[in-house]
Amino acid sequence: MSHTPEQLQIFLDIATEAALDAGAIVQSYWGNLNAIEEKGRSGDLVTAADKASEKAILEVLRRHVPEHGILAEESGKLGDSTSQYLWAIDPLDGTTNFAHQYPPFGVSIGLLINGIPQVGVVFDPFHNELFRAAKGLGATRNRQPIRVSETVELRNSLLVTGFAYDRRETPDNNYAEFCHLTHLTQGVRRSGSASIDLCYVSCGRLDGYWERGLSPWDLAAGVVILSEAGGKITAYDGSPWKIESGRILATNGKLHESLSQELLQVTPLERWANS
Ligand code: IPD
Ligand code: CA
Ligand code: CA
Q1: Would you say 62 and 21 are in contact if contact means Cβ atoms under 8 Å apart?
Q2: Whether residues 161 and 70 fall in one domain
Q3: Closest residue (by CA) to atom 5 of ligand 1?
Q4: Ligand 2 centroid vs 93 CA: distance in angstroms?
Q5: What Å distances lie between residue 13 and 6, 8, 109, CA to CA?
C-alpha cells in the first residue's frame, strides 16, 4: 500500500518534532560533557548527549506512533517488529566530533516503510540547519527547497567520505579510495557525520559521497533527503543500493558513473593490505 502525501507529511512533522527536541538537548551538552564512554570498539564513543537525545526522540515517537517499530542506535530494536513502519534513529551522528567540540554533528531520524526509506529529517543544532524530505514531497533546508550541484567532472568536484570504527581490523578500510580520489578531485573531506554528508551533497555544498561500514540509522534519513534533492544513490558498482549493505555511493547524479568507475579500480594500500 502506498501512502498519500498527507500521510507522509504527518510522519515528516513527527520526525521534525523529535529532531528539534533532541537537537536542543544535544546542544545543551555542548562543551559540557562529563562522561564519554567507549562502546566496545576503540574510538566508538557514546556520551550523555547521545543517550538523552535518544530518550527525547523515543518519547515523541511513543506519543504519536506507539504501534510502529524502532531501530535506535543506543537502544536497539524496540516496538512492534512486524510493523511495516520502522524508524531508524541516530540520536547523535558525529559523536567523535561532538566529544571534541568540533562541528558538525546531527540528529538523524528516518522512516522506512516496508523496508524503503520514505521520510527523513536531519537536524544540525550547532548551525541551526534543519534538512527534511519525504518521498514525492521534495527536500528542504530550513524550509527552503534544495537541489544537488551541477558538477559533471571529478576534477572539478569536492567529495566527502568517512572511515568506519573497524578500520584497524580490515584492509577494506577506505584508505586507498581516499588517496585515489584525493588525487583526482579538488578535495575529499571527512566531516565525521554521515547524515550531514548526505545533506551537504543534497544542497550542493559537496558533489558526492561514498562510505562503507555504516548502519541503517546513519543513512535512512539522508538518503530520502538526497533522492528528493535530485541526487543518485547506488552501491559502489552502480547496482541498486541496499540499506543493509552498509555501503553507499551517493552523488549529484552527474558524476555518479565516473566516481563509481574510480572506486572499482582501487586496490588496498600495501601498508594495510594484510592488517
Ligand atoms: C559515525 C559518523 C561518521 C562515520 C562513521 C559513523 P556516529 O557515526 O557518521 O561520519 O564515518 O562510520 O559510525 O558514531 O558518530 O554516530
Ligand atoms: Ca552515526
Ligand atoms: Ca550516533
Answers
A1: no
A2: no
A3: 164
A4: 4
A5: 11, 9, 11
- Give CA–CA dist 110/221, Å, rounded: 4
Return d(Cα 146, Cα 161) in angstroms, integer: 21
CA–CA distance, 55 with 179 (Å, rounded to integer): 39
Check residue 166 and give its pLDDT.
86
- Does 268 score more than 90 pLDDT? no
Which secondary structure element, helix H or strand E, spans residue 5, and what is its range?
helix 5-28
93 is in an annotated binding site: yes
Atom of ligand 1 nearest to the CA of 213: 12
pLDDT per residue as tens digits for the range 80-114 = 999 999 999 999 999 999 999 999 999 999 999 99
* Full domain range(s) for residue 255: 154-265
* 3-state class (DSSP) for residue 211: strand
- Residue 4, all three cell numbers: 498519500
Rounded Cα distance, 111 and 89, in Å: 9
**How many angstroms separate the CA atoms of 216 and 5, rounded?**
24
Residue 272 lies in a domain: no
> Residue 115: which of 33, 200, 216 has the closest Cα?
216
Atom of ligand 1 nearest to the CA of 98: 15
User: Residue 109: exposed, middle, or buried by beta-carbon count in 10 A (0-12, 13-18, 19+)?
Assistant: buried
Is residue 137 within 8 Å of residue 227, measured between CB atoms? no
User: What CATH number is given to the structural domain containing 58?
Assistant: 3.30.540.10
How many other C-beta atoms are found inside a 10 Å radius of the C-beta of residue 20? Answer: 17
Pair (24, 108) in one structural domain = yes
Question: Cα(93) to centroid of ligand 3, in Å?
Answer: 4
